[in-house]
């Protein structure tokens, strides 16, 4: 790319916003030129607005420290400075839906980490390796919004990334029933142990809204485009429990699965290892070379050993074995704030750019 696209980050001071800033440092296609947040941060430099709330392991990039934080609600002002935006705003769902559409109507593409538009029929919710063809609905969305280049695209919930890729890889075997329990890191709630010390040595058996998302969102990802909207898949039937555990980064899933056909273990592993999609074919900058790895050791995957596989963009699977009630069971692991949040959105933006949906204004 001859000239980098100008990027804005909405909600730049929060944890996911910070992850966007961190991941976009030295990106070959994108350059963060604008940071926007709530009115209380507006007018400050990014460094002073964040202060000691920087939660990333790597230092704050020098290139953003001096950027003046804009008010995210001053949509026209923010949009005028960028080619597209990443959205990680912390608002109510109704407010998010409204402000993301407002940005799109300024002819500014919005790639969102938020859940507000995940079930809007003409908004694609994409894991680029699985369903990049869903971007086709953007043309119908533009007609609804009355735009020529502005639109909204979203990535799915972080909790499904550790098992939904397996369902895609095993599609030919007809996954029909899935029972999953996810063990979710505290960064998924935007927390660290410093600001949530009561999570140390603790487990909370409830995360608001997560079970519904974990049961339904994979079906939308596995669905198809029809008449300008996404139609979700009918199978597999999924039931899920979501548990908060004392881990900083990394969502683990324990999964039981039944198939229409009866694959062998070797067939299932081969499909995982050979599975690839548009990001690998197009050699997108953030694409993992190996999307899914399979680990043979009985004690893998582990958060400490495997969460950063492929810089956090890969998925780790292990302990695949036959079950006495279901056909098979396995353990999955994904990085919730990289693949599951900002990194997944960056990969979506790369795919959208590669396919011509995002261009310089």
From TrEMBL:
EC number(s) stated in the UniProt entry for this protein: 1.2.1.11
Keywords noted in UniProt: NADP, Oxidoreductase
Cited CDD domains: ASADH_C_arch_fung_like (cd18130), ScASADH_like_N (cd02315)
Protein name: Aspartate-semialdehyde dehydrogenase
Family in the record: Belongs to the aspartate-semialdehyde dehydrogenase family.
SMART domains in UniProt: Semialdhyde_dh
Residue ranges occupied by any Semialdehyde dehydrogenase NAD-binding domain in the UniProt entry: 6-138
Annotated catalytic residues: 158, 251
Enzyme class: oxidoreductase
SUPFAM superfamilies according to UniProt: Glyceraldehyde-3-phosphate dehydrogenase-like, C-terminal domain (SSF55347), NAD(P)-binding Rossmann-fold domains (SSF51735)
Gene3D superfamilies found in the cross-reference section: Dihydrodipicolinate Reductase, domain 2, NAD(P)-binding Rossmann-like Domain
Keyword hit for Ribonucleoprotein: no
Any single GO BP term: threonine biosynthetic process
Classification via NCBIfam families: asd_EA, PRK08664.1
Source organism of the structure: Sporofaciens musculi
GO molecular function: aspartate-semialdehyde dehydrogenase activity; NAD binding; NADP binding; protein dimerization activity
InterPro entries the UniProt entry points to: ASADH-related, Asp_semi-ald_DH_pep-lack, NAD(P)-bd_dom_sf, Semialdehyde_DH_NAD-bd, Semialdhyde_DH_dimer_dom
